[in-house]
Fold:
Amino acid sequence: MKSTIYKKGVVVLLTVLLLMRCENFEEMNRNPTTSTNMDRNLMLPTIQLQLSGGTFETLRNAFIYSGHWMQHWTGEYSTTEYGGKGQRNEQYMSALWISQYPREIKNVVDMVESTRDDDSNVNINAVARIMKVYIFSRLTDLYGDIPYSDAAKGYYSKIYAPKYDKQEDIYMDFFKELDEAVKSIDPAKDKITYDYYFEGDLARWKKFGNSLRLRLAMRLTKINVAKAQQEAEAAIASGVMTSIADVAVMRHTKVAWGGITSGGNATSYVFMNSQLDADKSLFRMCTTFADHLVATSDPRLTFFGASYLEGAQRPDDITAQVLASVGSYHAMALPPSTFTYEANQLGGAIDITVNGETVNVTKEYQCLQPSRYISEIESPYMMMSYSEVELWMAEAAFRSWTTGSTAAEHFSRALEAGVREMSVYGAPEIPQDDIDDFVATNPLLPGSELEQINTQLWVAFALNGQEAYANWRRSGFPTIVYPNRDPAVNESNGRIPRRMQYPQEEFDYNTEHVRDAVSRLPGGKDEWTSHVWWDKE
Structure:
């Protein structure tokens, strides 16, 4: 399997270099290939790799803003200076938009359009439609109304300034697309090749499409409960993920070329200080996250975070020695919106014994960094987990929707799956007795079901800040207190913003349509404190 992945990696690396971001709006809409007979399967791995391999948007949207607000990780300068203080930065807010429209969206739309109504490409068309929904869902959840139905159609319909669809209309089309795509998958027809997620397994593609439909259905619980129930039940009945073997995961190799992430996990690159010489991380676990893991006796704590000595490749794990000295994991984490360089102001150095020698460790290095398992450049990236799916079904069951099990049963399965899924990152297997104790210690309690379920979703999204941010806006859980550490520079009214503002280049090149979208926002202003459609106030 590894040799197959490496061979595919060579194909993808060459393709990535040919599909770098274009700077011209018209160029963005050109047909991305030079041959109308190109096998569309060759485009799939490029899209998959780019979705988890782009450091630019991963840092800016997933960590500087949405991820930092969710208080899993803190400390790195930009995340704390801008996200932590609530300062707007146009480049950071627009990062996902300006990366994905000319890159993944251009290519996935071409995949869909060039295989439409083609009996020889039924399955790759279905896969492309599922991927299209996945990609656009991340954008609309961050920005609200966006170009969707006309987006990247320049080659096919000569539309170079696409209109902005209302988010409600986009979501309704998501459900239609996922339903049709899953139903159209036919094992007797074309095979899916060069597939990093599922190696062409059509049954798993069906489960992924249905599970994505379930995720998006749950977004609507504040705005349209009846539609949420209808789509959630339809997704579950059609067949969602049923085990860890179904997870959608992108596995990476340690490849870097001229500072460009071509084969590595962008989250890992972000976690580490240097793309090419990963010797230390500026991120530290936030006390909000650490305290919750301790309170629930979660065995994943030291798989998410660990203390390391400074040095090339972080040679020594000193977590146990530091804990013995300082007495708690809370003392080994940083408060929300705290710079890592401020750690030494919060506590003194300690002496520990490492390999028979006494080592002086400052507070900065006592604090929990992203562990090796999740921060190695070749660490995998989880697009969707089985534990997430069980948690969505737990909430659906709590709402008395048809899921096939009780909320408590789904919740227990989700807890166990969440622990077991750490093995995807190469973490040692956790003993079954420890997993059983964790599940037994955290039963679903009457009166707190929604808080427990959605807080566990927050844990599941510890490496996916955008999803954590989306579900927090929908559910309100966990209860997160925004520090507003510097009111003099804060630009979010002292609270966590609710969306990203539109890129300036849209006002420059797609003026009429972006202004129309802004007119639908409260007060007709493009503010990051305004709510998107499904985030009903």
